[in-house]
Amino acid sequence: MTDSKDPREAKLPEKSNFSEWYHELLKSAEIIDVRYPVKGMCVWYPFGFALRRSVYNIIKELLDVDHYETQFPLLIPEQEFMKEAEHIKGFEDEVYWVTHGGTSPLDVKLALRPTSETAIYPMFKLWIRSHADLPLRVYQIINTFRYETKHTRPLIRLREITSFKEAHTAHATWDEAAAQVEVAVERYAEFYRRLAIPFLTCKRPSWDKFPGADYSIALDVIMPDGRTLQVGTAHLLGTNFAKTYGITYEDAEGEQRLVNQSCYGISERCIAALISVHGDDRGLILPWEVAPIQVVIVPIVFGDKAPIIEACRALERELSAAGIRVKVDEGDERPGAKFYRWEMRGVPIRLELGPRDMAKGQVVIVRRDGAKRAVPRDGIVEAVIEEGHALQEVLAKKARASMEEHIRLVQTVEEAIEQVKTGVARIRWCGSVDCGHQLEDLVGANMLGEPREEPLLPGPCPICNASTTGSTYMARQY
Ligand code: ZN
User: Fold this and answer.
1) Domain count of the fold of the chain
2) Distance 230 CA to ligand 1 centre (A)
3) Partners of 283 in the beta sheet?
4) 4 falls in which pLDDT band (50, 70, 90)?
5) Is the domain of 142 the same as that of 199?
6) Do 159 and 68 fall within a single domain?
7) Of 251, 278, 305, which marks where a domain is finished?
């Protein structure tokens, strides 16, 4: 698949033309194939799936410390699904139903999970008996289905979400469940730090919380076009679902009490953010830790090919023995075509080795951001690892600067209207639902919610004029 394709055929639009760049890059870098004949359902190319695997390994590593991984069925019986009134209201228009087994209508319709609360919580009722069973923390990485009526977009808005990591927890008290929400936000923050992706953390306004939650905290990434992408959420469910599903535990005094719950999720939108935040006009740029191929070695052949190839293979063996994911590109194309292909795929480091380098006992090391130097052949492993980590820092810094450029504190609705055309506005908000709805209508953008940073100095709410230190981010959202 990879080698039959002539890389010169791929024409990546400039990143400033973000939407076209994004779609073309998913294809050219072989992340996602959108040609599957069901709208909103896409196929991972093997290279894309390798990237997904290394990214999800980080989430697993962060959760496995104190969560159990598990797996629940895809199908949810109608009566369980319909139990929690608010939850249903939030999802009913998006549910796919299985109504037949073969040619016979089913007695009980089965929902394809749009999310798994209603699959997991009836089992929590059976699993949880006493305070000794708490806290209970499980997660699964599975696919979910939502009948999206909005415009679908690969990795961003899908009818099959292929890689939904959802965690569900149960605790003795509301405070413990609320503390778990903070733990979840911190783990997600660590996850995105390791991907060198900066993000905003906000408490969603009450009208935009998860259906059935007391409140929701969300992480948003600012995409290159200034719109935001919600890339993680954590919800405090309190006892809302426990009441519905009868999830109780016996406390130390022998009393039956309802559990308090939280749930939190991340989907393949994290890959969309990774691609969009770091990529450039030449393709992907992948952080060292998650790149499926970390180093590509390109032989620069003049005259006799054999000794160069042999030297490249020796280099590959040495790097591989050090635990680095490395590949020699031995194809017959010109080096330029090889550079192009591996740059498109975001390989963090390219090594070039030709007769002149061999004579000098050196290897040329080129980082994906363009930094280039010759290093002694002897110290190559250390140099490669050093440059890999340096690239991570460069990416994090650049991404942080870009995020900050996209946020502006504004005082008036007019300024907010202007700002959300290209980025995120922070604007005062007294916190009232009425003012919130009016702000959204007038600005023509969504409220992401109260930033978790320092409050502002007191000033007037732009709608009701009440003095407030409260504020909200506003943006056009994906
Ligand atoms: Zn107000």
Assistant:
1) 3
2) 25
3) 280
4) very low
5) yes
6) yes
7) 278
